[in-house]
Amino acid sequence: MNAQRPLDRSADPFALAPHRRARSERRLTCRLTTLHPERALSLALVQHLAQELPDIDFTLADRPGIDVVWACGYERGNPAQIRSLRAHHPHTLLLVTAKEPEDLWSAEVRAAGADSALSWPVDLGRLSRALHRHRMQRRA
Asked: CB of 98 within 8 A of CB of 127?
C-alpha cells in the first residue's frame, strides 16, 4: 500500500513533511526548479517524487539548506538559465534534466555550471544516485 503523506504547510507550502530520522542525519533537500511556468505540474512532480524517493525532501521554494538544485525541463540554447542558477547556488549540486538525448545538450549545461545532466524520463535509481552525489562528494 502506498499512502500519501500529508503536506507540511507550516513553513513551506511546497515541501512535504519529513520522515523521522536519526538526529545526526539530516535529509537531503532538493529544490526542483522547473524551466516552464506550469506551477501545478511542478507541484504534482514534487509530490510524486516524494513518494518514489522518500529519503529526499523535494521543494519548489528557494530556501536555506538546499543541497541540490534540479533544473527540470531544460531546452538547448538556454545556458544563461543554468549560469544564473549556478551563480545563485554556487555550493550546491546542480542537476539538469531535459527530454532530448544527453549527447545533444549535456556539454552545453556542464559548460554553464551544471554538475550532472540526465535525459528525462530517467530511471529513479539513477536519479537518486545523481541527487545523493552531493553527500558523497562532501564526505570524500
From this structure: no
